[in-house]
TrEMBL record:
Keywords: Membrane, Transmembrane, Transmembrane helix, Transport. Its main location: membrane. This is Cation diffusion facilitator family transporter. Residues 8-202 form the Cation efflux protein transmembrane domain. It comes from Albibacterium profundi.
Amino acid sequence: MKSQKSLILLSLITAISLMVIKFIAYFITHSNAVFTDALESIVNVIASSFAFYSIYLSSLPKDMNHPYGHGKVEFFSVFIEGALIFLAALFIIGKAIYNFFFPIELTNLLEGVGLVAFTALINFLLGRYLLVKSKKLNSLTLMADGKHLLTDALSTVGLVVGLLLVYFTGLIIIDIILSLILGVFILYQGYKLLRQSVGGLMDESDVQLVKDVVDVLQQHRKDPWIDIHNLRLQRYGANLHLDCHVTLPNYFDLNKVHEEVSEIDKLINEKVGLKTEFFIHADPCLPQCCHYCNVKNCPIRSSEKTIDMIWDVELVTRNLKHFEKEKSN
């Protein structure tokens, strides 16, 4: 968590510095497109400030009021960043439309191009670095900040190209059109962040993460794990909460059941790459399980094994034992 705080602080300091540079570029050029870029940099500063606080809050230990920890604050951080980007984009589009009817003369374009090109390079390098670190630290906040910086860098590259066209052609309308295009692009990026944050707050299933968990279970399954069903995931920042039902031989005593459940817990925590808290409900096997049960020398088997059940997302996430799912199909 200390690493995340240091990275967000670096992002915040960089955002403030680049914001100053972009506004200097705007004041010497009076370019509507440069103003667009400078305005978005204010969003960067506000978003990085909130992200820094959310990293601190998500690092707090569980308490009576937050039994699952504080990790979901990262979704709020992503929501705030997305909302600010969305609002900034609307303002950018509005100003571009205004300047279409009331254009402003542009000055010192080459100097302005040099300044904004420098900010694009810094944002690209920092954005890539944050995305790499977000994967290692499993941080949604770092991921959102990194994507935002890359989006900022990409839009700034388009801005540089457009300003050079204005310089060589003298057509001010290019600056306005460019600002409109960047505004729509930024609007879409804000929408995607908002969509992601709302999905997380509503406990929307992370399909890829569920698939990763199911693949690990399939690859390392043990014979006594007759079936696993009703598997559900919730993500809290860098932590994962997982609950499921596992069918075990009905003659296992409590100690053996606990041992098998602990094996599943250990397996997921070692292989998935996220700190995972498990709630596993153990079901006793039934005679209907025999035809897909892998247990060797079972003392209560009522029929021979006839099929191999391959665990996939659809099979494991349904709230049905495997034989019940066969009937439902």
